[in-house]
Design a protein that fits this description.
The protein is of the alpha/beta class. The protein has a single domain, classed as Rossmann fold, CATH 3.40.50. It is built from eight helices and seven strands; from the N terminus they run βαβαβαβαβαβαβαα. It has a seven-stranded parallel β-sheet with strand order 3-2-4-1-5-6-7, sandwiched between helices. Helix 5 links the parallel strand 5 and strand 6.
């Protein structure tokens, strides 16, 4: 178990691995478990913050199940202040942070050092695998340099997986990569490439997203809370009840909250 509030950061130096989509779908997964959640958008593109604003215009702010805020990742002092605030906020259980596909931003080092979980999405191809390996080595060097101040658990998520793709030699390379990555952290179940994962909503899970991501997300959830069961039972608003796609957890659902994009 991890002491809450827990900070979960989605990161990889390689862009296009699905960090933003998985960050939002994990937030939607958490609210079905009764988890009080906040999302902090540190990506340069502000995709989550923009999506939340669009969702408010479509559904209304009263349906927002968790807060969404934004933080400039280039400002190291601002990142440190946000991390301290999140770690000491008793009103939340989990804070999710989306990051850019880059290691150049000044705030990334304190962000990684102060995270409780770092979720690293990647997919099996000849460009992403070596780039992800380099990122995992960077985190290992950072952990050593932090001299005991960095205790983040790593979850490495094979995302956008297409089982139809890959020559025999490539499949052997993918297996070797999985074995190597497991030396750095826990490699989750594969999340398959599906059309349902090509869009996301900050109000509720869409289509079949729940069944697609739940096997991978349950590993992270169990690490944080020590159980796969919901931590509390509350009610979702109407839009989550009609569009939520986590049937496995449908009997115990999470509550609503106001949202502010700063």
């Amino acid at each position: 178990m991890i002491h809450t509030p827990a900070i979960v950061t989605f990161a990889n130096q390689k862009g296009g691995t699905g960090k933003t989509t998985l960050c939002v779908t994990f937030a939607n997964y958490l609210v079905t478990k009764g988890v009080r959640t906040v999302v902090v958008d540190c990506d340069f593109q502000r995709s989550i913050a923009k999506c939340r604003n669009a969702d408010i215009r479509k559904y209304g702010e009263e349906h927002a199940p968790y807060d969404v805020a934004a933080c400039g990742i280039d400002d190291r002092d601002a990142v440190n202040a946000v991390m301290e605030k999140l770690h000491n906020d008793p009103s939340i259980d989990v804070a999710l942070i989306d990051t850019p596909g880059s290691l150049k931003a000044a705030g990334l080092v304190p962000l990684f050092v102060n995270s409780d979980v770092i979720a690293v999405p990647f997919h099996y191809d000849l460009v992403t695998v070596p780039s992800t390996a380099a990122f995992l080595l960077f985190l290992e060097r950072l952990r050593k340099a932090a001299a005991g101040r960095m205790d983040a658990r790593l979850f490495i998520i094979p995302n956008l997986h297409d089982g139809r793709v890959g020559k025999r030699s490539e499949l052997a390379l993918w297996k070797s990569a999985r074995d190597t990555f497991s030396n750095h952290g826990f490699v989750t179940e594969k999340i398959p490439r599906r059309a349902d994962m090509e869009r996301f909503s900050t109000m509720a899970a869409l289509d079949m997203q729940g069944s697609i991501v739940a096997p991978a997300f349950e590993n992270i959830y169990t690490e944080i809370f020590g159980t796969s069961e919901p931590i509390r039972q509350t009610r979702l608003s109407g839009i989550q009840l009609t569009e939520n796609a986590f049937p496995k957890y449908g009997k115990k659902k999470a509550g609503t909250g106001k949202e502010t994009v700063k």
